[in-house]
Design goal:
Layout lengths: L1 E3 H13 L6 E6 L2 E7 L39
Length: about 80
């Protein structure tokens, strides 16, 4: 969407408060864009606890896969 500078000046508060997240409004003067109003950033969803439940399987009884990393693991005993 685009408006002339005169139209934008007359309606600036309404234009600012009615911009959707991420929406852009070009302000033109003499058929040239001189400014852009950009709506607030879209909200990113916050992580929800438990969403990744079954994404990781831990086999606590099987340590054989760790033998390749023995030199990197400090010995505690």
């Amino acid at each position: 969407m685009s408006l002339t500078l005169a139209e934008a000046q007359a309606r600036l508060p309404d234009l600012i408060h009615n911009l959707a997240p991420g929406e852009e409004l070009a302000i033109t003067e003499k058929d040239r864009t001189v400014a852009k109003l950009v709506g607030p950033p879209a909200e990113t969803p916050r992580p929800v606890a438990g969403r990744g439940k079954v994404a990781l399987v831990i086999h606590s009884d099987d340590d054989s896969h760790l033998e390749d990393f023995a030199e990197y693991v400090p010995r505690l005993w």
